[in-house]
Design goal:
Blueprint (H helix, E strand, L loop, with lengths): L1 H28 L28 H11 L28 H5 L1 E3 L5 E8 L5 E8 L4 E12 L18 E3 L4 E7 L12 E3 L2 E6 L10 E3 L6 E3 L4 E2 L6 H4 L3
Parallel strand pairs: 1-4
Antiparallel strand pairs: 2-3, 3-6, 4-5, 4-8, 6-11, 7-10, 8-9
Length: 243
């Protein structure tokens, strides 16, 4: 009895399957089923407007906006970086007129004095003053000479006065002549031999010339008398021995 029952179940199952297939075909014939639409189409991009090549122009318009008003507030009152002055080398005196052209009065602290006997004119002696300092010095007036223990200054020969004050750069020399005696005509008096000589200087105001300087005389000394005279300071040796 079991075999006929199983056969009946199989027949019922097969009949149900056939019925479901018939219903599916009916649905397809009514157009409600799935249709073959062919190959799927990709969505097309929209054509660029106004014949543009299709490139993105957003960057171009952005640049336009940036350059349009870029210089608006850029020219304000800013002064930029401050320029510091270049350091100047310390001064050496070469370019300093005050240091290089400063003058002092020639005196015993800035000059060396020598005394030399000469053959012409007779009974004359030549004084030479050399600037041994580092600055230019001025020789005012004439030398105030003192032989031995003399208490007075010999007079000057007026005609020997130069047109300008003699000025000595460092290392340069000036001159003055000394008429020691009246010579062979015996015009002088109180003649004597002296072995020491000191020379004093005049300043701008005559009496502020500073210290004097000693000048060596020959070992035998020099003969002088009361006709002793001197010249003004001269720029050249020949001018000093003219009188």
């Amino acid at each position: 009895m079991a075999a006929p029952t199983r056969s009946r179940v199989r027949l019922l199952t097969a009949a149900a399957t056939v019925a479901l297939a018939a219903l599916s075909l009916t649905a397809c014939n009514n157009g409600d089923g799935v249709r073959d639409e062919g190959a799927s189409q990709q969505p097309s991009k929209s054509a660029p407007a106004d014949g543009d090549s299709g490139k993105d122009t957003s960057a171009g318009s952005t640049t336009g906006d940036k350059t349009g008003s870029g210089t608006g507030a850029g020219s304000g009152n800013g002064t930029g970086a401050t320029t510091k002055p270049k350091p100047q080398p310390a001064s050496t005196g070469k370019n300093n007129p005050t240091a290089s052209t400063a003058r002092v009065t020639c005196n015993g602290s800035t000059v060396k004095v020598t005394a030399q006997s000469v053959s012409r004119p007779v009974n004359h002696m030549l004084l030479t003053v050399t600037n041994t300092g580092s600055k230019r010095c001025d020789l005012y007036g004439y030398p105030a000479v003192r032989f031995g223990e003399a208490q007075s200054v010999p007079p000057v020969i007026d005609d020997s006065q130069p047109q300008a004050v003699v000025s000595l750069p460092p290392g340069q020399s000036a001159y003055a002549g000394v008429a020691l005696s009246g010579g062979d005509d015996g015009g002088g008096s109180n003649g004597r031999t002296e072995k020491t000589l000191e020379v004093f200087f005049q300043g701008r105001n005559t009496n502020d010339g500073g210290p004097g300087a000693k000048a060596a005389l020959p070992a035998k000394g020099v003969y002088i008398d009361d006709s002793l005279k001197v010249t003004y300071w001269q720029q050249s040796m020949s001018d000093a021995l003219t009188w």
